[in-house]
Amino acid sequence: MEFPVVPNKHTSLLHAGYHHPIHRKWQANAQITSEMLMYPIFVTDNDDVEEKIDTLPGQSRWGINLLVDFLKPLVDNGLKSVILFGVPVKIKKDPVGSAADDPNTPTIRALHLLKKAFPKLLLAVDVCLCPYTSHGHCGVLRDDGTIDNRGSVRRLADISMAYARAGCDMIAPSDMMDGRIKAIKDALVEEGIAHKVSLMSYSAKFASGFYGPFRDACHSTPGSGDRKCYQLPPQSRGLARRALVRDIGEGADVLMVKPGTPYLDILRDARELAPDYPLSVYQVSGEYAMIWHSAQAGVFSLRTGVMESMDGFLRAGANFVLTYYTPQILEWIKEDSN
Ligand code: PBG
Ligand code: ZN
Question: Which catalytic residues are annotated (predicted)?
């Protein structure tokens, strides 16, 4: 439809449509609700400690024994979903990341625990090899140091099954190997649990400079080289579109664009390429830190900076956001409803 259909001397007057705060709410394409927030949680194998993460102010690695007490007030405040990241520190890392699906790995223990403690909370798990491999890469390597894609995909499917059996509701592979969505979906079907474990693909995941604080949090910086041969080049819109289409074709249930703010055009592309799919965006660690430090420096209030970034994600087409600001936003949603 062309708009305005019939221009007249009044259609140029806009103020009336947003002079009142409720009017302004009506002008939004979507309002943020608690269902739209997924909180990334770092779980470590130091069972009784909370280790503050210097580069992610306000975030910590949590020992299993502190996890329920940490999450309880957030669940009471409306927290609906989390994504778990394992940060084992006591393990021996090896080239194939054997510790990733060890029955005692922090994510598997946390899944059992959280499923019992919070039966309604959606539990997603990040699947990747980088926190567990001696070389720190997201896949298995060949002798020449390049990625062994087939071996990686096989390993990722095995790890995914271990998490699925431990009770996770959603598998979220962040490795960016070719064909992992199909391999994991096939494994879920084979196991007979494809109806109750969904698959969220980190589809358009870029080789970003904004992951720094996260790699610090997870001790997952590659020992040598970088991730530019599997994560997407930030300059490329076309590869992101192809990766999204590819992952839909391989059976992804939910799509993701990551990072968020520098890639809002990709988020809009994803929305248009896949109008019938739930779409998420990951506001990554560097974006979190950037907003945090800006607020500290008086650029804006934290709430203003965070909520404006959320507005951008929703406007571009996201259905939900993975963000370390989840606790604060839940609080602000509650304040707003009073
Ligand atoms: C691991 C992974 C990373 C992030 C999520 N999963 C780091 C990376 O790929 O290097 C980044 C999240 C963040 O920065 O908050 N594959
Ligand atoms: Zn990784």
Answer: 205, 258
